[in-house]
Amino acid sequence: MKSLSLIPRHSRFISSVFAGFLGSFIFYITLRISCYTPVSTKIFSVDYRQRPECTCLRPELPYLSSHLITNEHHPSFCSRYSSQRGPHQRIISISLFGPKEAKKFEIHRTLHYLKLLIKDVNIMYSDGFILRIYHDNTINTTDTICPIECEHLNVDFCNMKNKTFIPPKIWRFIPAGDPLVDIMLSRDLDSALTKREREAVDTWLATNKSFHAMRDHPKHKFHMLGGLWGFRPSLNRHLAHFILDKIHNRDLIKHYTGRADQGFLSSHIWPFATSSLLVHDSFFCMNDFGHKTEPFPTQRPSANETNCFVGCVRTCCGHGKLPFGECPKQCRPKNHPEWIYC
Q1: Domain boundary assignment for the chain
Q2: Model's pTM, two decimal places?
């Protein structure tokens, strides 16, 4: 009887030893497999900070989870370095392209405008805004991109050689669908960034409106101008993805080449923007664009500076250009009817 009572105890001992061994073996195998399984964090070498053509390094940036860097349908929103900046980016976006689309293209003149624009960004948007330059191969990496990116931490060049089916003027709209971007402002290369504009943008950002549009000249007769609108993707990621799909729809986007970027905005963005939109308008507040407007929060100082309007082509705000007169009384702030140059 004693021998029979020992058998269960001996069996339990052997079972516990075997279970421990089996658990250790499974843990070991799992650990070995995990060493060869890709993880979500991309470990980049230092070369992400240095383009192959450059001799300079950009500052190191935090690493990101790889699924934020690319999208299976739209694999690149700008550049490797741009993605490494992480989420919550605030973007000022422009298109820069050569003579095929811009007949008056001159590289020296273009670079002159670009340097002035970067200077404006450093003054007017020094609170964390990044200038993204969507460009073609007419912009030389060694002579232009390398020195500018290494000198200015807040500038990213985005080569569009793999997305030539998108019309160049619409390249600058791409940040609207970037999951890493919270705020995007679409602007023109040759237009100054002014205090009047920044105060209008700040007024918009103080609201819960997703879209912003500005009209500040008697010739601004459009729903949205290609270089004077903004969007907050962070407030509506579903709509941001919808916009990105529109931009990458080859059958659709091919109809908006040349100067048709504003036609694209009117047909495919404006109808969705009106439900969450702030428009600053100094001349067309009575026109039926299908949305109520507001006066600009600041006025122009005098008749001699009425040519200093938001979106003006350089050189603006100076002498030699005829002023365009008073703004309509209906477009002035209710508490400032005396702002005749509103």
Answers
A1: 46-65+80-331
A2: 0.82
